[in-house]
Specification:
Layout (H helix, E strand, L loop, with lengths): L10 H17 L2 E8 L4 E8 L7 H16 L5 E4 L16
Parallel strand pairs: 2-3
Antiparallel strand pairs: 1-2
């Protein structure tokens, strides 16, 4: 049985974790929106504003968003964004080594 994301029992804790990092995202003109929490406990997000096009979004997603959410909601096993370009696919000159 599929549960709507709006009524998912983990949503309040996920949103609270995201609220802790939203000021940092907003400082750079971005934000995130929860789309889905899958049956296998994957949180699916949409990156909004500048986060949707920023070349650092893959790192922000993993090092910031995913770490914060998994720390606050250990039931979540992974965080995915539907609109992030992997670092390996970033245009030349936008990847730092």
């Amino acid at each position: 049985m599929e549960v709507s994301v709006d009524s998912h029992p983990l949503l309040p804790r996920v949103e609270q974790a995201l609220d802790g990092i939203r000021p940092y995202l907003a400082a750079d003109g971005g934000n995130v929106r929860v789309l889905e929490i899958t049956e296998d406990m994957v949180l699916r997000l949409e990156l909004l504003g500048a986060c949707g096009t920023c070349p650092m979004s893959p790192m922000t997603l993993k090092a910031g968003v995913e770490e914060s959410v998994k720390k606050a909601v250990p039931e979540i096993r992974a965080v995915e964004a539907i609109n992030v370009t992997p670092m390996s696919e970033q245009p030349a000159g936008q990847v730092r080594f």
